[in-house]
């Protein structure tokens, strides 16, 4: 098994060598995302100010607490700068990040960047104690994926331009809308790097448009 996977991992690391992936580092588990993308072969940069968005090939919006992230984003025009970035540049959003990207946020209603054509309900599966790890089918090559759900939101609706790559109880957990990839779970918390590799593929495809 190790012999089989090593060449593929080596090759994808080489392919993504020149990609610079920013990780929004206002709050939440940004360090885990930076580690995951580093081991997937990308250069990573922690982003704390609007100016630090320039020069990135793609950006990760991590999980954490979306209300706290919003408070930071509302300073220094960061909210508008991020919305502008996400409307054209590849973004990978997990959990709280997915809440930030969505067109509509419920439970309760909350301001969001509005670029991902989806309605997202916060904390839809209950409290911290209801957090869970499930292995569920996906459209990704390689089959089912381990998904860590932590006070997870639920994607209640997606628009026509949104592709659903995995579901939990019928509700989307991993979705793609062109240059945007969003998950309601935490791929950075497992050793399976298929979601990170998919995002790097999206970034590379975006560059050769
Ligand atoms: N419940 C959090 C929120 O509403 C999201 C949880 C997470 O990112 N794991 O922002």
What would you note in describing this structure?
This protein is an alpha/beta fold and 209 residues long. It is built from 6 helices and 12 strands. The protein is globular, with a radius of gyration of 16 Å. The N terminus is likely disordered. Glutamine binds next to helix 5.
What is the strand tally? 12
Averaged pLDDT, please? 91
Helical fraction equals: 25-40%
Shape: globular
Strand order of the largest sheet: 2-1-3-4-12-11-10
What's the CATH C level?
A: Alpha Beta
CATH superfamily label? Class I glutamine amidotransferase (GATase) domain
Give the arrangement of secondary structure elements:
Elements: H1 2-15, E1 20-24, H2 30-39, E2 43-47, E3 58-61, H3 66-73, H4 78-88, E4 91-94, H5 96-101, E5 102-106, E6 116-121, E7 132-136, E8 145-149, E9 154-158, E10 163-168, E11 171-177, E12 180-183, H6 194-207
Parallel strand pairs: 1-2, 1-3, 3-4, 4-12, 5-6
Antiparallel strand pairs: 6-9, 7-8, 10-11, 11-12
Bound molecules: glutamine (GLN).
